Amino acid sequence: MRETGDGPERLNTGTAHSARVYDYILGGKNHYEADVAAGDAMVEVWPALPAHMRANRAFMLRASRCLARDHGVRQFMDIGTGLPTSPNLHEVVQEVAPAARVVYVDHDPIVLNYAQALLASTPQGRTTYIEADMRDPDAILGAAGFRDTLDLDEPVALLVIGMLHFIHPGDDDQGLIRRLLDPLPPGSWLAATVGTADFAPQEVGRVAERYAAEGMPMHLRTHAEASAFFDGLEMIEPGLVQVHKWRPDPDDEPVRDEDIAMYGAVARKP
Questions:
Q1: Cα torsion at 188, 138, 160, 238 (round to 10°)?
Q2: Which CA distances in Å does 184 have to 23, 99, 117, 258?
Q3: What are the angstrom distances between the C-alpha of 41 and each of 127, 207, 217?
């Protein structure tokens, strides 16, 4: 099921967009010339950017698999879904639990165009796509797709992957996470990644400048600032670490710490 909003933003192929730049750098096909130009400029100032982005996505896959396999989570809500890239979240969790349910949320019109790839659920499970902006939690929580897909008597895993560096403190960043978590029952989870310049400040700073020049300003956070998103929650091991250090798989590509500009953690709501 698709559920779309009526926001003013429509598809603009002449301006780079973060989801499409991400798709281009990861080797996808759903991008345009503006996204290619922006992505090339960013990789030029920080050649490690592709490895960084792959590590961020790999964290999402490991974290969601861990929640489904080791903690019995059967309901997921993915904020800032981005363009479909197999394996998608529902493919990972439904491989573990075919009856798992997933709500995808994004506000980029091009993601909506390709949302059918996100709706190919198993017969036992369900996937739903909601067009909404993370900065408007009420639109997400009030959507029929949210209410009809998720049972709020059972735990839900909230995933916010590769999004928070585009949310500034002035947007009540921590408050947005709290408002999304509030209606979820005890035993629910938050899995999130948070952009940082702690390990390669000059290189990552130049990438941030390029994003800002393309109309996509970002706010990079220290470890302490990133940790604040998980206040009041119970982190599981290894806590808040660079994403490539969070329960890596043996076949994950080796990367240098200075090539990863993202913290990640998984935490339980008590």
A1: -30
A2: 30, 19, 27, 36
A3: 36, 9, 15
* pLDDT tier, 3 (very low <50, low <70, confident <90, very high otherwise): low
**What's the rounded Cα separation, in Å, for the pair 21 and 34?**
9
pTM: 0.92
**Percent with pLDDT over 70 in the chain:** 96
pLDDT digits (tens, 9 = 90+) for 19-64: 788 888 888 888 889 999 999 999 999 999 999 999 999 999 999 9
The number of angstroms, rounded, from the C-alpha of 104 to the middle of its chain's C-alpha atoms is 10
The DSSP H or E segment spanning 179 is helix 173-181
| Beta strands per DSSP E along 1-94 | 2-3, 75-79
* Sign for the pseudo-dihedral over CA of 257, 263, 266, 267: positive
